[in-house]
Amino acid sequence: MKIINTEQVQNSLNFEELIPLLKESFRKPFHMPQRQVHLLAPENKSKHDAFALLPSWNNEVIGNKMFTYFPDNNAKHGLPGLFSKIMLFRRQTGEPLALVDGTSVTYWRTAAISALASQLLSKEDSQHFMLFGTGNLAAYLLHAHISVRNLKNVIIWGRCAGKVQKIINEFSTIYPQINFYTSLDLAQEIPHVDIICCATGSKTPLFPGELVSSGTHIDCLGNHMANARECDSATITKARVFVDSLANTLNEAGELLIPIEEGVFKAGDIVGQLADMCMQPEILRQSSDEITLFKSVGTAISDLVAAYLVYQKVP
Questions:
Q1: Which of 138, 56, 119 is nearest to 308 (CA)?
Q2: pTM, to two decimals
Q3: Is the domain of 210 the same as that of 275?
Q4: How many domains in the chain?
């Protein structure tokens, strides 16, 4: 059985290969039971330590992603708040194949799924991209989206000016043909953006929905909590909404659950999930004027596909 570390994951993956592989994998049969997230001290409302299990399988491989979430780790112990591993088994025999670093796989597959959704839903001539968030996922998202759209202008929004500038400096060197810049004037920027990608820890909406112009595509990736959201109800009600997984988003995503509770949106208003998007092109963007929104909380099958690709490449 292989033990695959972060460096091996990083050396094995690229978006030019991973994004089309994920698209093809969502067209094929797979199984993905609803993930289980267990609070380790449910009686303590101020503690959010958790352990999660995300099983899935297809015709080739069985996988179970496991992660721990300890949000106070950095402040108390100087450690990351999340640790993750993916265990792979051969589908035909059940033989253990590998234990793969799940944290790095998660970054890659999250960015790849975000870019795949944009490739399917955003206007093909989209050139103006706005990223909310400067965390560990930011660089992956930028590389992924640049690989699927011919972007000309990229706005980076973040609460830490130093992190924003670091990203701008780094990516301006890598992609000199793209204009990277920052702006806090959302009323000026949002109406002119083609693609908005949200990957923050914000508990409240990042921008008012009335600023969003026709034709915009929106990705909401950062929130996994039923009582929090990165976009408001106005954004949801004016968009055709897609999700990565109905079961997971309707259990965890405040972007959908809060408007449902308000009575302005229904679960039945969701056009489709990622498998539908990959198999039924007729349900995708209907015109250059419509607003589309993709809400993702992560899928075990995308972890499985990315981890198995790594397994196949590592000696």
A1: 56
A2: 0.95
A3: yes
A4: 2
* Burial of 180 per CB tally in 10 Å (0-12, 13-18, 19+): buried
Residues 179 and 280 grouped into a single domain? yes
Q: How far is Cα of residue 191 from the mean position of the Cα atoms in its chain?
A: 23
What pLDDT band is residue 71 in, cutting at 50, 70 and 90? confident
- In this structure, are 120 and 67 located in the same domain? no
Domain holding 86, by residue range, is 2-105+301-313
Please report the pLDDT score of residue 130 as a whole number.
98
Instruction: Kindly state whether residues 12 and 95 are assigned to the same domain.
Output: yes
Q: What digits encode the pLDDT tens for the residues 52-66? A: 999 999 999 999 999
Taking only the tens place, the pLDDT of each residue in 138-148 is 999 999 999 99
pLDDT tens-digit map of 107-144:
999 999 999 999 999 999 999 999 999 999 999 999 99
- Does residue 216 share a domain with residue 124? yes
Q: Is residue 110 in a domain? A: no
Q: At what angle do helices 300-313 and 15-25 cross, to 10 degrees?
A: 130
* In a shared domain, residues 176 and 255: yes
